[in-house]
Write a structure and sequence with these properties.
Oligomer: homodimer
Helix content of chain A: over 70%
Number of strands of chain A: 0
Distance between the termini of chain A: 56 Å
Shape of chain A: globular
Radius of gyration of chain A: 19 Å
Chain lengths: ~200, ~200
């Protein structure tokens, strides 16, 4: 048993492996970030909600930024993203990319986390930059790199910007006709715009 | 002198024509919406900040939505927008549209109002829908209509979504390389994506 688990056991009075502490922290973090915003949610409050010592949060995630990235990571964890986008006609890559994200976000397990993510981000706080950096760098960076165009950072940034805008309209504002369209139909509609950031010369 | 002006004169002790009351309300509204968010700012607090009776706000703007739209209108008041986009090679329409907005937003008088607008909008409140409806309907609707493609509401909505995403990245998050690019260079970069919503078949 690690020191962290002993700490947790002492506080909670029940046994818990590191995986369940880890998951309990992520679940508490998603709820607290959504409730109070990234800036408003404290590590202490998240620890209390997860019923663990706050030292364990720092042990697992180092910083609040790290915890936030871990908590929202699966919103962007589209399975086999690069392979899906690269396979097939290059002219359809933008639509495949859009479809992969929209199908993922429509998943009933993922969708509440999309909404929690947006609730966590207040216009001017640090979380917006963290989301942008994670989406553009870790998630879209490898996709853009696979197409080899110049200015990959700019391409990934604009692609991420447009995808997040569509998320916001579809899942948060529920703005029609975006909210009610099938994922595949909406993907066909935004496919050309996404394509321009993958393959257009600029 | 109107009843509203008499009311104002009684409260403030100084003479003011309807235009200056109108402008004072808009200025106070921009500041209060930015400070407290659309939901948090009350008509009463805006009236107090403008030193007018709150009945005058309702007289001029009917509702808080109406006041908000009036307060943010010039953020989207690109001069001669439709004529600028329609004139010239149709293949360059998307870039002309993007350039017209970016040059307008870079104007030192407009830019603080762009930031105030974003500060006013909290993720889930009514202001986000008001901005979307105004941009997609009143501002972009006539541009999209000029190109005659099907599903004009969908086109205007997605075009507006992308432009607002770029606003947010460039002026609020100040995310590089978007923040430091010249308006014309950034317009060339997002031009194809904008073009797809004007002329692509889907």
């Amino acid at each position: 048993m690690t020191g962290e688990e002993q700490t947790r056991r002492k506080r909670s009075g029940r046994r818990a492996g590191p995986t369940s502490s880890h998951d309990a922290i992520l679940e508490a973090a998603r709820a607290k970030f959504a409730e109070n915003g990234f800036e408003g949610a404290t590590m202490r409050a998240i620890a209390a909600a997860a019923d663990v010592d706050s030292a364990l949060l720092h042990h697992f995630f180092l910083t609040k930024d790290g915890l936030f990235t871990a908590a929202v990571r699966d919103v962007f964890a589209v399975p086999d993203l690069v392979a899906t986008v690269v396979a097939g006609d290059p002219a359809g890559a933008g639509e495949r990319l859009a479809r992969a994200f929209l199908v993922h976000w429509d998943d009933p397990e993922v969708r509440p986390r999309v909404e929690a993510l947006i609730r966590s981000v207040r216009s001017f706080d640090g979380a917006a930059g963290t989301v942008r950096d994670f989406l553009a760098g870790d998630v879209l960076g490898p996709v853009v790199a696979a197409f080899g165009g110049g200015r990959p950072d700019l391409r990934a940034s604009l692609l991420g910007t447009h995808l997040l805008g569509v998320v916001y309209m579809r899942y948060v504002l529920r703005s029609e006709p975006l909210a009610s369209m099938e994922a595949t139909e909406l993907a066909a509609t935004i496919g050309e715009a996404c394509q321009s950031y993958l393959t257009e010369r600029f």
